[in-house]
Specification:
Oligomer: single chain
Number of helices: 2
Strand order of the largest sheet: 1-2-3
Helix content: 40-55%
Shape: elongated
Order of helices and strands: HEEEH
Radius of gyration: 26 Å
Largest sheet: 3 strands, antiparallel
Number of domains: 2
Mean pLDDT: 70
Number of strands: 3
Length: 95
């Protein structure tokens, strides 16, 4: 391997490291926004508008800067509030 090939190979490795570093930083930025309740569009603060009646977590948040509403559904909470055996009572009664 001559010097030119070694230089090109090190450049390819450096480019790959740069790409993975960019991905890592993008994932970190996304995580920080989710943890600190910042808008994904403008980085504005999100305020809480509504809570889940079961787990008391925020389900609707609104950005104070761009007025975007973020709605989060809790599928486990929704399934626990619905009656499971509504038709089973009285169906077999012959009184």
């Amino acid at each position: 391997m001559n010097g030119q090939e070694a230089l090109e190979r090190s450049f390819d490795v450096g480019t790959h490291v740069l790409e993975s570093e960019r991905k890592r930083l993008a994932q970190y930025d996304s995580l920080i926004r989710k943890l600190f309740y910042a808008c994904e569009y403008c980085d504005g603060a999100l305020i809480q508008l509504a809570n889940c009646i079961v787990c008391k977590r925020a389900v609707v948040r609104k950005c104070v800067r761009c007025n975007t509403e973020l709605c989060v559904t809790h599928t486990m909470c929704i399934s626990t509030t619905q009656p499971k055996h509504a038709n089973s009572f009285g169906a077999g009664d012959s009184s």
